[in-house]
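WARN no homologs supplied; continuing
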Amino acid sequence: MNLTVATPHTIGRPVYTALLPCRPDSVCRARQFVSSVLTTWGTGTLVEDLELVVSELLTNVIDHTVCAMAQVMIERCPDGVVRIEVADNSYVQPRMQEGDAAAESGRGLFLVAALSWRWGCVEHDWGKSIWAELKTLGNATSAASQVPTSENVQ
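OK structure emitted
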């Protein structure tokens, strides 16, 4: 059994990371990780949305890459923004699929876009990271009333 340890970073903004194997059971562990960090920070209003976002981002890595491990990072940014990021060593860029709204798969990035304030993908020398930022209720209107954007900047 692999042990996942949430690692806090002590310099700069509050950040926690977890290294997870790219297996379906890791999605549940990523959701639990996000929930515990948000509860620690007192931003529990974002738990459901961020759990769904991390589920979709990690599931994309599991389903569309051959990576053995993925890193999940959650960061508390200024102005009530929480950033979730999933990094892997694949260079395959995520893309929204045109598809049927009733389909059982292929809508993950649409959900990420609908729930987040903004999201995007950053290429690195070692692979990529896909990120999404959500605002706490005191700092934004509901995600449904926002226009989702994809920004390829960090």
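The helical segments are 25-41, 47-64, 108-115.
OK
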